[in-house]
Amino acid sequence: MQMAQIVGGYSLGAADLLRRAMGKKKPEEMAQQRAVFRDGAAKNGLKQAKADELFDLMEKFAGYGFNKSHAAAYALVAYQTAYFKTHHPAAFMAANLSAVMNDTDKVKQFYEDTRINGLKILPPDVNCGEYRFVPVDTGTLSYGLGAIKGTGEAAIAAIVAARNAGGPFRDLFDFCERVDKRLINRRVVEALVRAGAFDAVEPRRANLLASVGIALERAEQASRHAQQVSLFGATIVEAPLQLNEARAWSDAERLLNEKLALGFYLSGHPFSSHRDEIRQFVRTTLDQLKPSGEYGTSSVLIAGVVESIRKLQSARLVALNLSDGTATQEVTVYSEVFEQYRSLIAEDKLLVIEAKARTVRRGDDPDAVFLRISAEKIYDLAAARSRFAKRMRLAMNGQADAAKLKELLAPYCNGGCPVSVTYYNQNARCEVELGETWRVSLKDDLLQSLSAWLSTENVKIIYRETASGS
After folding, report:
1. Which helix (H) or strand (E) holds 35?
2. For the domain 275-379, what is the CATH code?
3. pLDDT tens digits for 246-297?
4. What residue segments make up the domains of the chain, in order of their start?
5. Which of 27, 188, 209, 296 has the fewest CB neighbours in a 10 Å radius?
């Protein structure tokens, strides 16, 4: 404001209008103010080029500068924050997580920061969790049940009240009988199951989810029959309560259900079950991804699970957040590439991507450099196996049935991967490569059926030696 007054001839009021215009960053207002500044500077004997240079400096400073009182306030808050995070880490992180518990993206960020700083967050648990995140000791905090989607403060308060009144819940049926059914509905219970909040009393989440309906129904019946006796004066005896049996969830299904309830994967990462196989041909983890020079480009092969998809209409591109458990990277997919691979791109899908990685400088700041990753080719796991596999090798002993092998391979023939069979008995061993017509598509169903028949160690995919690029 002083520069505007002294150089540009502004009054105090006019200088304040300039400050506001800079804060709003409206191009048309700034163009008008530049003209006013030039005229005032000319009256003070300053050339237009010099006036424009000074105005540019003021405009640039307005993008990040504070007045002294504002800067002092920020500095004090930064000091207090650093102090609490250093000396009271569990309480500090519990407070921060509780403050953002309705925003799952921010909960995930703070959760990761908590783990990086060596703190432990206990998983959701109906027998010890509160509505908010709570410090248990100096290095541990309990997960806030209110951060589970579909619950709410009133529902969690009812759960805590029932637990305080009658002790820990014994099982799902006990839980449904004791909580206030006016506040706890099926959606709440299912969200708790998906999040793993009943694991301490019953780890089989698939059975729990299949039993929520009958558990709530039995609880309603018990409530209606309370104090009711039969015609003979005896209390009504209910049949023993059993969970419905359901197919056990795979690791991938468990993690997907966690993401539905919490907004992110909590007990693991879906990439983990494929990590050993994929590392045979994808050498670079996302946390190690680097470009080849300041403005150079490099072909790189990356893999991960799609955490989110963001479409930018104006820029004609799609941004994928790709995660492999070591880091999350944003991958840009331009419209022509997206249209080609549209059917493969979906949230929670594992993808292998041939991409270009390059550094991009933002503005004139030499330190404002970031990594931009642009997808060129995209594969799902089956296509990546066929693209990078050298062959599938099957080991079969003298008892193996050739007809059975033909039956299992036939639906997947005319693929890209050669198949060889290592046949052995007590006296001999040989390896036979099947003909071109028996090249297969390496889909999960095929590998699972072969592994079930021959055992996993007898089904091997041999990958080509690849550089980090392709």
Report:
1. helix 27-43
2. 2.40.50.140
3. 999 999 999 999 999 999 999 999 999 899 999 999 988 999 888 754 444 5
4. 2-62, 84-251, 275-379, 385-463
5. 27
